[in-house]
């Protein structure tokens, strides 16, 4: 999918007024804070967030990767705005106790900016 002014406006309008996580490098919106499942995950560079969904990301190729909780089939996620690596997508977990991660996104905390929609009166 090509990024153009129309698609960028559509994402901004959809998420306007909602707390989001954005790319720390280019400020592209990556996820709604409401999509956060857990903050108790580890990424390559520190803490990570397990998320139900993410937008404005492109996936790398699938690969089997040995992680702290076993071998998972994952694909790296890159920001569509600046191509920075943000985390990975869980395609498949080999261990039954880890199946809940399948179809979820691990976003690295250090790669995100937490943006709230607060206004000062």
Main sheet makeup? 6 strands, antiparallel
Multimeric organization: single chain
Overall mean pLDDT: 87
Strand content: over 45%
**What is the number of beta strands?**
9
Poorly predicted residue ranges: none
Number of helices: 1
Our measurement of the CA-to-CA distance between the termini, rounded to an integer number of angstroms, reads 39 Å
Helix content: under 10%
Radius of gyration: 15 Å
Strand order of the largest sheet: 3-4-8-7-6-5
Order of helices and strands: HEEEEEEEEE
Q: Overall 3D geometry?
A: globular
The helix/strand class is mainly beta
Structural account:
The chain is mostly beta strands and 121 residues long. It has 1 helix and 9 strands. Strands 3-4-8-7-6-5 form a 6-stranded antiparallel beta sheet, with no helix packed on it.
Summarize the structure.
The chain has 121 residues and is mainly beta. It has one helix spanning 5-15, and strands spanning 20-23, 29-32, 36-43, 46-51, 57-67, 70-79, 85-93, 105-108, 112-115.
List keywords for this structure.
121 residues, mainly beta, 1 helix, 9 strands, 9% helix, globular
List the helices and strands and how they pair.
Blueprint: H1 5-15, E1 20-23, E2 29-32, E3 36-43, E4 46-51, E5 57-67, E6 70-79, E7 85-93, E8 105-108, E9 112-115
Antiparallel strand pairs: 1-2, 1-9, 3-4, 4-8, 5-6, 6-7, 7-8
